[in-house]
Design a protein that fits this description.
Radius of gyration: 18 Å
Number of helices: 3
Shape: globular
Length: 276
């Protein structure tokens, strides 16, 4: 079987342990499952003076990560992805994954996905959970010369018009670490975040479909240049239509292939659930 097969997302289920990302606690997921088009991201696109505004949300990146190119299969799997710098002053990096993120027009404030855009087109995506660590940083025992994930956004398309919507996953559901927080040591951590209550309602009522994600990192520093690094792996998408997330799913949301085009989705064409 290829690593792009898609089955289901646990409905209204949150992740409540580090091992819950990969040992079957988060029902429906399996190794290799990805919901987003498996393309390289547009990374480190920002400016120290203006940044980039997408759907009126500011994203900042002013240096280039030393880590290799991200793919959705690595982010959703055990290989993981990382943001890494050797820096003597504070910097930000950004990584965007999913369809169209390598096109220049994607970085306009207002954007409409073309018919060729690919995704599983999953509805009711309302958050994420992932494993993370600052291991590899100079200060991975606690201290300033380390990196951490500052914020995460989910990118959606309107099912009729293709207009992009971006909502931030900034409400913590569970986890032993927080977004935008330094690490006390080089241990393995996890966090699970959802959209705001009002944004969850918008995603549900407008039937928005998931197209991509954005990740912004902070790289802090000491007086001399040192390596700062943050790694993410085994990312999981949280799906539901409300805020009452539970420990065990009561149903599964079946998803299509992550190679489905927006045109096929709009035409209601036959869609693969899994393929080889």
């Amino acid at each position: 079987m290829a690593d792009a097969k898609v089955r289901a997302i646990p409905w209204m289920q949150k992740i409540e342990s580090y091992n819950g990302h990969h040992n079957g606690d988060f029902l429906g997921w399996h190794n290799g499952q990805t919901l987003l088009y498996n393309s390289s991201e547009k990374k480190n696109f920002g400016s120290t003076t203006t940044g980039h505004k997408l759907e009126n949300i500011e994203w900042w990146a002013d240096d280039t990560s030393l880590a290799g190119s991200w793919t959705t299969s690595n982010l959703f799997g055990s290989s993981g992805v990382a943001s890494e710098l050797r820096n003597g002053k504070k910097h930000n990096t950004c990584f965007f994954i999913g369809t169209q993120t390598t096109t220049s027009s994607f970085y306009n404030n207002i954007y409409t996905y073309p018919m060729s855009s690919k995704s599983s087109m999953v509805r009711n995506a309302i958050g994420f959970s992932c494993q993370n660590t600052c291991r590899g940083s100079y200060s991975d025992g606690g201290g300033n010369a380390q990196a951490w994930l500052e914020k995460v956004g989910l990118f959606y398309a309107h099912p009729d018009t293709g207009k992009r919507h971006i909502y931030m996953a900034n409400n913590k559901v569970s986890g032993n670490h927080n977004l935008n927080l330094k690490y006390p040591n080089n241990n393995d951590y996890y966090y699970c975040y959802r959209l705001s209550s009002s944004n969850i309602t918008t995603v549900k009522d407008q039937k928005l479909v998931l197209m991509g994600m954005g990740f912004q990192f902070v790289h802090d520093y000491k007086s001399a240049p040192h390596t700062s690094m943050c790694s993410l792996k085994n990312l999981r998408i949280i799906a539901g239509d409300g805020t009452g997330l539970v420990s065990t799913a009561n149903r599964l949301l079946i998803c299509g292939s992550n190679l489905t085009t927006f045109q096929e989705f709009k035409d209601n064409s036959p869609r693969a659930i899994a393929y080889t």
